[in-house]
Amino acid sequence: MGPGWRAASAALVGGSVAIFAALRRLALAVPQPNAVRSRPGRVWRWRNLLVSFAHSVLAGLWALFSLWHSPELLSDIQDGYSVSGHLLVCFSSGYFIHDTLDIIFNHQSRSSWEYLVHHAMAISAFVSLIITGRFLVAAVLLLLVEVSNIFLTVRMLLKMSNVPSPALYEANKYINLVVYFAFRLAPQAYLTCYFLRHVELQGQGAFLTANLLLLDAMILMYFSRLLRSDFFPSLRKGSAGRDVDGEKFLID
């Protein structure tokens, strides 16, 4: 990647940050349920989740389209390249930067520290991909997780709003479990095996492999929380799953 293309990529990332800042303002106009309005600590979280939902829909469908349109990319995870995939990585990098700033500037760092760790990993990995032009296919595969995040975010919005229809939450609960396996656990497991078997553990390869293994641990932890919260509530310990104003766990 030449300097000109890197500068263009940086501009794309900056433009994505601006897009999500605008979406954040639009989220202020979305009507809030009584359960949110009555508890000020939930207002920021509600707005933040709406922006997260927008990113999940756009990035998840974009990742699916990129792989459907260019399935040959899957045969070259290290050096395969597509303009669509590159743009998607820039777009999502902008979201992670925006969300990090939103958490910090709204003094939610302590309650949202898990997001900050996740975002730091994603931003550092994506920046390395943008600079080198390598492993972009791996990033697109990882962004399939956003399909799962669509239903995960709906789950959290339903819990916050105290939706009067338990059937809606129940339906989303099972859909969420299925897509969690299909778009979060399966791509993650495939990439982990690929990196451990085929990627040299030096330089960028070592950095991305370490990042991937840490993400594996986080995803398994979130999955155990999801199972305890939605399917085995009797196994929750202490305050796990407790609804506290301002908290923004990846799974709660």
UniProtKB/TrEMBL annotation:
<dbReference type="Pfam" id="PF03798">
    <property type="entry name" value="TRAM_LAG1_CLN8"/>
</dbReference>
<dbReference type="GO" id="GO:0055091">
    <property type="term" value="P:phospholipid homeostasis"/>
</dbReference>
<feature type="transmembrane region" description="Helical">
    <location>
        <begin position="137"/>
        <end position="158"/>
    </location>
</feature>
<feature type="transmembrane region" description="Helical">
    <location>
        <begin position="6"/>
        <end position="27"/>
    </location>
</feature>
<feature type="domain" description="TLC">
    <location>
        <begin position="41"/>
        <end position="235"/>
    </location>
</feature>
<feature type="transmembrane region" description="Helical">
    <location>
        <begin position="205"/>
        <end position="227"/>
    </location>
</feature>
<dbReference type="InterPro" id="IPR006634">
    <property type="entry name" value="TLC-dom"/>
</dbReference>
<protein>
    <submittedName>
        <fullName>TLCD1 protein</fullName>
    </submittedName>
</protein>
<feature type="transmembrane region" description="Helical">
    <location>
        <begin position="48"/>
        <end position="68"/>
    </location>
</feature>
<keyword id="KW-1133">Transmembrane helix</keyword>
<dbReference type="GO" id="GO:0007009">
    <property type="term" value="P:plasma membrane organization"/>
</dbReference>
<dbReference type="GO" id="GO:0005886">
    <property type="term" value="C:plasma membrane"/>
</dbReference>
<feature type="transmembrane region" description="Helical">
    <location>
        <begin position="178"/>
        <end position="199"/>
    </location>
</feature>
<dbReference type="InterPro" id="IPR050846">
    <property type="entry name" value="TLCD"/>
</dbReference>
<keyword id="KW-0472">Membrane</keyword>
<dbReference type="GO" id="GO:0097035">
    <property type="term" value="P:regulation of membrane lipid distribution"/>
</dbReference>
<dbReference type="GO" id="GO:0071709">
    <property type="term" value="P:membrane assembly"/>
</dbReference>
<keyword id="KW-0812">Transmembrane</keyword>
